[in-house]
Amino acid sequence: MSLISWLLALAGFACLALAMEDHHHWLVGRRPSRRWAFTLRLLGWSLLALSWAAAAASWGPALGSIAWCGLLSVSAGPLVLARTYLHPRRR
User: Fold this and answer.
1) CA-CA distance, 82 to 60, in Å (whole number)?
2) Given phi > 0 = left and psi -120 to 50 = alpha, else beta, which region is 29?
3) Which end of the chain is more exposed for a tag (fewer CB within 10 A), N or C?
């Protein structure tokens, strides 16, 4: 269950990052529309909520919340490193 929670948090943070204009332009090459940015934000927060639910189902609500905070840190790391060190190729 912790792997599922981690993957959901990673996907949620990726959606939240893509909802931001700078990150979306960096990856896609254009600014997101207002509707698409709203959809990505809604999807990102929903995935983070599902990530907490998976952690709470696995470890219980008290310990799952604490473990979820650690999973959030671990899941944000690859996204920060990717944004810092990778440069997407433009065609």
Assistant:
1) 32
2) left
3) C
Structure token digits, residue 58: 């696995």
Residues 6+ apart with CB under 8 A from 25: 31
61-88 per-position pLDDT tens digit: 999 999 999 999 999 999 999 888 887 7
Burial category of 7 from C-beta neighbours within 10 Å (exposed 0-12, middle 13-18, buried 19 and up): middle
Distance set, CA 52 to CA 19, 57, 73 (Å)? 21, 8, 13
Where do the H-state alpha helices sit in 1-91?
2-18, 21-28, 34-59, 61-85
